[in-house]
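Reading a protein record of the kind used here takes only a little practice. Each token is a code from a learned vocabulary of local backbone shapes. With that in mind, consider the following protein and its fold in token form:
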Amino acid sequence: MQFTNPVIPGFHPDPSICRVGDDYYLVTSTFEYFPGVPIFHSKDLVHWEQMGHCLTTEEQLPLAKSWSSGGIYAPTLRYHKGWFYMVTTNVSGMGNFYVKTMNPAGPWSKPIQVAQDGIDPSLLFDDDGRVYFQSACNGAIYQCEIDIDSGEMLTESRLIWGGSGGAHPEAPHLYKINGQYYLMIAEGGTEYGHMETIARSRDPYGPYESCPHNPILSNRSMDNQIQATGHADLVQAQDGSWWAVCLGIRPVSYPYGHHLGREVFLANVTWTADGWPIVGDAGHIHPLMDAPELPEVRWSEKPVRDDFTESRLGLEWTFLRNPHPSCWSLEERPGYLVLHGNQVSLNDIGSPAFVGRRLCHFSSDIQAAMEFEPLNEGEEAGLTVFKNEKHHYDLAVRREDGRKVIIFRRTVGSMKVEEMRDCPEGVVVLQIKALPEKFEASFQTMDSKLSEMGWGETHLLSTEVAGGFTGVFVAMYATSKSEQATPAYFDWFDYEPVN
């Protein structure tokens, strides 16, 4: 059998994986979004279901000072003697820390900080009880030993490898395999020159011998739908086979532009006669690859419509930084998501009234039914296709010069273009049609046909244009400068992949 890459589409970068029996668990980065670090579960390495988040409280994940693409960087997930450990970096505060639990669905512990500098931390639990902590710092990989109960450094940080010569050595993972220590890292930056390299030693502190056929994974300079592969993690399946998960991107057109973000890809790992790993097809990953020989377990698909009748938001929903509790509610009007706009707009670095989900498909139909009769001048509510505060497309209802209007606004850097029409009272259905190269915006009321408002290029919301490390979100939002904001009532939200 074969499977299709990516195995987890949309903005899910920096994957890390561990196995417990015949269950697999995987985490990814979240940067300035809350809750932080989604955790996924699989039985066959191909089909994944989100089961929770590792960071669900403001104590675990303070994001008030987080800039766009700040916050949580690459996590590592490990399992040892009944406990799951997720170690990561909050670059906007706290630095390196880890949380732990016996139930990966949560809740997870309070954060335990580690004083070693750097980013992209990782853990190795050695056979003799020692716990080694690695991170990327000053263009190299450093390591110390820690007390796993307290996070205290038991040794000083020591440089253990500077990489094979590529830029930005980062994302270290240390494994003990057949009595040797293998140190696998990412090099080349998380860009089109991204690659994965490896070295080994008989001692955890080295010296490390670089693999003679590095990089062991890279799609650089290839005519391939998948680019920028790297930041990998290894896992051995229960049948003895080896696999790697890694990040990659899928550019839409030339000149290259990717807007879905960095996604999770899977590939087999083979070992040479002299004990070196090779990922995928001679170090390359393809859209279609041979699947693991494990019993296939598929999860039920998410329904297209969320009608907000549950007492809690689904796991796919995400806030921009730590949300203000007064800005959203599922209880104020049962069966509705209610948003109360605050003075933070989508153009600001802050916590607007924002409830969004990742755009995970090149083509999808997105709709939301909204009741919103703005009373205060300038306040608005609607849908946004959001990359960051300087790059987003907004389809919204607003109070403008005493009138209720509907707008479609394209914000690209310092440039803003806005279309505006009068909007009748009553329910408005806002529609965003996502296509590989553009987003089309339209709306419909109870008494009117579908009306087109305009479109915007996906390329202008790509990382190549907008910068940063995140992907596009589609979100319901509200803003208001009034202390008595008019509530926006969202009756339902549809997300339907196409083809």
Notes: The helical segments are 463-466.
